[in-house]
Amino acid sequence: MDIRIEPTADGSATLYVPALDEHYHSVKGALSESRHVFVDMGLRASPAAAPRVLEVGFGTGLNALLTWLEADRSGRLVRYAALELCPLSPAQALALGYEPSDRLRALHEAPWEEAVSLSPCFTLQKLRADFTTFAFAPSSFDVVYFDAFAPDKQPALWTAEGFAALYAALSPGGVLATYCAKGSVRRLLQQAGFLTERLPGPPGGKREILRARKN
Ligand SMILES: C[S@@+](CC[C@H](N)C(=O)[O-])C[C@H]1O[C@@H](n2cnc3c(N)ncnc32)[C@H](O)[C@@H]1O
Questions:
Q1: Using one digit for the tens of pLDDT, what is the confidence trace for 142-162?
Q2: Which of 4, 35, 54, 192 could form a disulfide with 164 if both were Cys (CB 3.0 to 4.6 A apart)?
Q3: CA-closest residue to ligand 1 atom 12
Q4: Closest CA to 47 of 208, 196, 197, 170
Q5: Number of domains in the chain
Q6: 192 CA from centroid of ligand 1 (Å)
Q7: Quick check: is 25 in a domain?
Q8: 64 lies in which domain range?
């Protein structure tokens, strides 16, 4: 697949996929989007003592990298599972220059399917799987990072059925965070049973993002 590295406005890099005319992150700042949407508004909003995180779309591993750093900083154990249909090679991911590169390498060189402990506070399980057909166990996660390509590029990932599956997969009090604040997405989340909040986006980035909670 043709895929190119491009700079974003906060100085961090992202990937551009010409076939989809889509980036892996916001061009207004890959690092600031990942940190704000997923770590600050998602993980840190979870009341779970040892949150089980599900990422939809492992991609470059940037969200996993920032989550690992946050787990070690906070001392809160995070068990991180990530679905990915089309994995990048470690070389493609390392070329993005995300730091610390030894951790980025460990994330990408970790085996698929099995859970591995990467530090006392962070375990990773990468699953090579299709979100749209994945069979989730009920209440198996506390936080969802919903980081699919945008709804107009990949509508099959932003459906009532998909959000209903995530609702069932979350524990009570569970949190889903996404960068997309479209009204149609908010309504689909509400239809699945979530309570939704529009929150300010990252500095210099999108105006609003979405967080959804299961009661
Ligand atoms: C917006 S990018 C991911 C960004 C990623 N979280 C990161 O930090 O780099 C969307 C990701 O979803 C993956 N993807 C696309 N369709 C998928 C599917 N049906 N199931 C699982 N992953 C999928 C893509 O390959 C891509 O890596």
A1: 999 999 999 999 999 999 999
A2: 192
A3: 57
A4: 170
A5: 1
A6: 22
A7: no
A8: 30-213
